[in-house]
Specification:
Elements (H helix, E strand, L loop, with lengths): L23 H19 L2 H25 L4 H20 L5 H24 L1 H6 L11
């Protein structure tokens, strides 16, 4: 186990000893409790479904806009892909997505991720990454 602990909240956060020691739990436990409570008890699942569709649409639109302009917007598109993935996980955990729909949602997120990767590979950084070197000057 990492740092010899069984619980992630017991991980050393700041490397200090004694009274100055801070754990991951000291910093993030309350956040975990509140967000879990909100996501599992309060979040409006109709809104989450709409947000998934919006993130999916935005991701594809960003990639298309980049292609039209001859530029790469792979990272902003990927941000929307990650949002869609997170929203899928929330919806799935809440039982909103049926077993029959689940595979379709997974494919939709996969399609977004693949499109983002393809956009990045077409970018100046992506074209040079295969050689093991990322050319940041080419992106300017």
């Amino acid at each position: 186990y990492v740092q010899g602990v069984d619980n992630g909240f017991d991980l050393d956060f700041n490397g200090a000893k004694g009274d100055l020691a801070v754990t991951y739990g000291d910093v993030f436990h309350q956040q975990e409790v509140e967000f879990s409570g909100y996501n599992f008890e309060l979040a409006n699942t109709d809104v989450l479904l709409d947000q998934f569709k919006e993130a999916e649409t935005a991701c594809l639109a960003i990639i298309a806009a980049g292609k039209e302009r001859g530029k790469s917007y792979a990272l902003p598109a990927y941000d929307q892909c990650i949002k869609a993935s997170h929203l899928f996980n929330l919806l799935d955990a809440r039982g909103v997505i049926s077993v029959a729909e689940r595979q379709s949602y997974i494919l939709r997120v996969r399609t977004l991720a693949k499109a983002c990767c393809e956009a990045w590979l077409e970018s100046p950084q992506g074209r040079t990454a295969g050689a093991g070197v990322v050319d940041y000057e080419a992106a300017r």
